[in-house]
Every structure is written in structure tokens, then in C-alpha cells.
Amino acid sequence: MLVCVGGHSEAWLDTVLDGQDRDINKIVMLDCVNALEEEHKEGMQISRRHEHEHKGEQGHHHEEFDEHVWCSPINADRICREICLKLTELDPDGADYYLQNYRDYSAKLMELNSDFEDAVKNGKRNTLVFADRFPVRYFVEEYGLDYYAAFPGCADDVEPSAKTVAFLIDMVRENDLPAVLHIEFSNEKMADIICEETGCEKLLFHSCHNVTKQELDEGVSYLELMRQNVLTVKEALS
Predict the structure, then answer these.
(1) Which GO terms describe its molecular function (predicted)?
(2) In this predicted structure, what is the pLDDT of residue 224?
């Protein structure tokens, strides 16, 4: 069984699978959830690739879905459920085992979801600013948050213009935000500039897309990283 995200960045996968001489049971994460198109919001700097594609479309709408579906615990639960159902179909003898594992993990995801709901409900504000790429649209949509960010989630160039930095500085000031966020593996330079200009602090929101070698060696889990994000959201909305 193959579990993949699907979408633009995995377009190569169909070519690989077409070359197989046997059927592959495939679960596409984007098909398990309400897929959202990648959003280009006010103040967001569009990458050179997106500008080139837009100019080549000659007015035609180019649909590109945000692939970071797991950033919502509810989506993660939906994906796990589909994996469980497929496993029980392929291995009926192990159905009880798969179902129990899913129920146990689903309960943890629902607890995580409740923690995020409480963090948002008890927050003093409703806006997040990302001095970085923005791969967490499913998260903000799930919890009704507003946001501003420097780049779309799949941007290929992340060198901000002075205009982009100035816009985010203005958003931090206008919304009286205590923190600006960055994602994992960021060089944090833009966040540092915004902090220097506004006096806010910088916080990590982990998109659960990449982990360090140390995190990998230590066996860090999705739940651990997302629980850290609960603390980040509490502080960012305080």
C-alpha cells in the first residue's frame, strides 16, 4: 500500500506507478480531505515560478492545491481513518488490530484538536503573522484564524522584498501582536528584522513537514510537534 500526498509536487508519481506491472493500492491524502487551493493573500510575495505560470496561463485559472493537509488534526484523523479502512480491506484478519490502533490514535488527535480550540477561544486576538512561507492554511481554516505571511506554502524563493517585510511589520503593529512566527528550517532573518522593528518575539510553528536529524533520531512524533504548536498559538494569541 502506498500513502502519498498527491498534488502538483507529486505529479511524477503517476509516471512511476504506470511503469509497475502490478496494481498498487494507493491512498491520496488530498482525496481524504476538503482540499483547499493555495492562497495568495494580501501582502504575500509571489514566487518567480508562480509569476511565470500565471503569465503563461493567458487568463485561464490554474488550480494548485495546498498539499500540507496534515496541519489540521481533523484532517490527520480523516487520513488515518482512510488508511485504517484500506488496511482492514487488504488484511481482514488484522482488522481488529488496525481498528483499535485507529481508535486510540484518533482519541489523541481529538484531544489535540480540543487543545487548539481552547487556545483560540481563550486568545485575545485572532491573527497570526508568518515571516516565512505559509504551509498551514488548513490549520487556520480549521480554527477560524486570520493570517498574513511573506510567501505561499510552496514558494521556491524566499528572499523577501523590502515591501514584503514592511507590510508584515505594519500588520504586527496594527494588530498589536506579541509574536511573529516562522516554520522549521527557516533562517529566521525576516523574523529577526520584524522583531527588531516592533519589539515582538519570534516563535516556531512547526509545519510537521521536515524534522532535524536529531529529531528523527529521537523519534519525534506528529503529536509531539503539534503539542508544541499549541503552546506557540497560546502565546501568539495572548
Answers:
(1) metal ion binding
(2) 98
